[in-house]
Write a structure and sequence with these properties.
The complex is a heterodimer of chains A (112) and B (670). By secondary structure, chain A is of the alpha+beta class. Chain A has a single domain, classed as Alpha-Beta Plaits, CATH 3.30.70.120. Chain A has three helices and four strands. Chain A is globular, with a radius of gyration of 17 Å. Among the domains of chain B are: 176 residues, Rossmann fold, CATH 3.40.50.300; 70 residues, no CATH class. By secondary structure, chain B is of the alpha/beta class. The relative contact order of chain B is 0.10. Classes of the chains: A alpha+beta (112), B alpha/beta (670). Chains A and B meet through helix 2 of A and strand 4 and strand 5 of B. Chain B: It catalyses: nitrate(out) + ATP + H2O = nitrate(in) + ADP + phosphate + H(+). Chain B: It is a peripheral membrane protein.
Amino acid sequence: MKKVEAIIRPFKLDEVKIALVNAGIVGMTVSEVRGFGRQKGQTERYRGSEYTVEFLQKLKIEIVVDEGQVDMVVDKLVSAARTGEIGDGKIFISPVDSVVRIRTGEKDTEAI
Amino acid sequence: MMPFIEIDHVDRIFPLPDGGRYIALKNIELKISQGEFISLIGHSGCGKSTLLNMISGLDKPTFGGVIMEGKEITEPGPERMVVFQNYSLLPWLTVRQNIALAVNRVLRDLPKPEQEKIIDDNIALVGLQRAAHKRPGELSGGMKQRVAIARALSTRPKVLLLDEPFGALDALTRGNLQERLMEIVQESGVTCIMVTHDVDEALLLSDRVVMLTTGPEAHIGQILEVPIPRPRHRLEVVNHPSYYALRGEMVYFLNQQKRAKKVGAVSQFAEAMGGNGLEKINLDLGFIPLTDCAPLVVAKEKGFFQKHGLEQVNLVKEPSWQAIADGIRERRLDGAQMVAGMPLALTLGMGGKTPLPMVTAMVMSRNGNAITLSKKFAEAGVKTLEDLRLKLAETPDQVSTLGMVHPASMQNLLLRYWLASGSIDPDQDINLMRLPPPQMVSNLEAGNIDGFCVGEPWNSYAVKQNLGYVIATDLDIWNGHPEKVLGMREEWVNKYPATHLALVKALLEACEYCDDRRHRQEILDYLALPQYVGTSTEYISPGFLTEYDQGNDAEAEMLLDFNQFYVKQSNYPSRSEGLWILTQLARWGYIDFPKNWVEIIERVRRPDLFGEACRHLGWPDLEGDHHNVSLFDGMVFTPNDPLGYIKRFTIHRDIQVTEILIDQIDQVNQ
C-alpha cells in the first residue's frame, strides 16, 4: 500500500475530487496547509531585488491506495490539478506499512 | 543547485482572429547559469524574439514560466535590460540624457554624484565620450547601438537581453561592437541572451547556441556548446579546431529547418479541417497477436472507435512484423501498430527500400518484453549476463542462436544492447535469427533457437511449458522504453487529418482504459479470443494482471510497470527516444546515420499531433522532450550528440553518416 499526498491549489479541489472518485477511490483526507516551494511563495517585489519568503494557502489531499493503483491515481491527480502555471503543487508518494479500520479492526486492503 | 534563469516548460499560444490558436512555442526548457552567454538562432518567425520577450517580462507564457533566481518573472524589471535592433533612443535627448533617463529612474536612491559617475562610466565603456552631447539624429547606426548598450548596462542589470543587436550594422562596425560587447560582458559578468541570425556571431560570442526549430510549435532542436576559450578574438576564433565543425553543424541545422518548413505548410492544413467530420470511417489497422495489442482490442470492443466516429474499424491480424511493413507499403493497411523503430526504418528506407515517410503521433505501450533462454542454460547454471558470456566462451565452436522479431523492434535493439554491454558481440559471438513472435516457442521447442527476446504472452508460454526461463525483462534493461507505436503513412495523415485525429483520440482513451487495473480481467478475456491473441488467459495474465513468473528460483512477483499503456506519460511520442532508436540502428549497421537526423525525427515523431488530440480530450499534453536517456548500464544518451554516443560504445559496427533526403525521392515517386 502507498500513501499519495498531493499539495494542490485550493480551487482545484472539486475537480480533483471528481477525478479521483471516478477512478474508484473510496476515501480521502483533505486539510488546509500553508507552505512555499521553489517560488518562495510569492511574487511581490519591494524596490529592486529585496524579497521576502511568504507562505501560500494550499490544500493537502491524502489518499491510501493499493500499489497497483498508484500510477493511475497520480495521473488523474496531475490531469485534474494542473493549470500549467507555476504553483500547481506537488505529489509525494510513500509506503504505508499497515492500515486498521477502527470500527471493525479489519486490516490492510480491507480497511482502505 | 538552482539555475540562475530557468525557462520551465514554456508554451506560448496566440489566439487567431478566426477563433483558432497558433502555438508559437511549445515546451521550451532551458537552464541558464550566471554569467553565461546564450545565443538563440532559428529561422524568421520561429519565436526567438517571443522567447526573449518572455524572459524580459514584456510577454507572458501561456503555460509554464520563466524563473530567475527562484522568482517567477511576471513583469519587466531593471535587472533585465533589453537592447533592441532598432536602438529605441529618444530622439530629442542627447546621448547623455538618454542614458541618464534610465539611471535616474532605476538608481534614484543613489546620491546624485554617484549617478553622474555611473553615467560617465558607461559612456566611457562604449567609447562615446566625444559624442555625449549629440542627439541620436547626429549619430551613426553603430554609435546609436552603443548608446543603447550603454543605457542597458548603466542600470547594472543581471541579465542583458539582446534582440539582433547588430542586425542593421555594416560588417566593420559589427565586428568592432562584438569585440566591445565581449569585453564589457567579461568585465561586468552579466548574463547575456542574444537572438541572432548570424551563425558566426553566435559562435564568436556564445557559450551555448540554442537552435530553435521552425514554428508552429517551435521547440529546442539542438544545443551546441562552444568550447572555444575566452577571451576570444574575431580573427582568431576561426583557427580553433572545432570552429568550422560547429559552424557547419549550425548551417546544416538551419537548412534542415528550411526543408521542414516546406513540408510543414502541408500539415497546417490538418488543423484547418479539424471540425468538419471525418474523411474516412472504414479503416484497416494491422496488429500482431501479442498482449500489448490490448489498446486496439479495447478501442474496438469497448466502442472507443465508434465514440470518435470511426464506425468500421477492421483489425487485421498479421503473421509477422514484415507483413505489417509490406501492408503499409502496398497500402493494403491504413495504419498499424508497429514496433517502435519501424516508422523510422520505413521513412529512411532501411534495407535498401524506397524511403516511405511515416508519422507516429503516439506511443501505444511501454515495456512488456523479456529475454527467455532455453532450459539447457539454466541447467548449466546461467543466471546472469556474465554467466551467459562465460558459457558462450566455453564453447567457441558452437554458436548459439537467439530469436528476435524485427530489426527495427525494441526487442532486437534491447537484446543487442544487453548482450553488448556484457561484452557479447551480437553479430559475432552469437547468431540472431528473425522469427515472427507467435513462432518463437515452437522454434525453441524444436531446438532451432536457444532463446529469444519477444513480447508477451510468448515468454510466459515458454516458462509454463517448462521450455525456458526469463533471464531478464526489459524492466531490467530500460524501464519505460517505448514499445509499440501507432504508424501511419505521412501522405495518409495529410489526406485524412481529421480521421487521424479521431483515431489517436480513440486509442488514447483506450490506452487509459487499459491501464486501469480494474479493467484488466475483462481485457484479458477479450485478448484470449481467437480473433486476437487466441491463447489461454493463463499465459497472457502474468505481468499483465498477475505475478510474473520468470521460471527460475526467484519467486513470481508483481511487476506493476510490466505493461504500461497510459500512466507516466506513456503515450508521448518523444523525439529523444526516436533519436535513441536511430543511434542503435546505426550502431548495428542497419542504416547509415542520417546527417539530417533532426529533420527525420521531426517528420516521424509528432508530439504536435499528439498534443492536438490531448487538447481535444482535455488532457495535459505536456512532457519534456529533448531529455537524456540512460539504460541499465548507466551510459547516458544526450540528444545533442548522437554520434558521440554511438562512438562511446566498445562494440559497434562502422558508422556511415549520410544525408537522407526523403522528399526528393518522394517527388520522383509521384
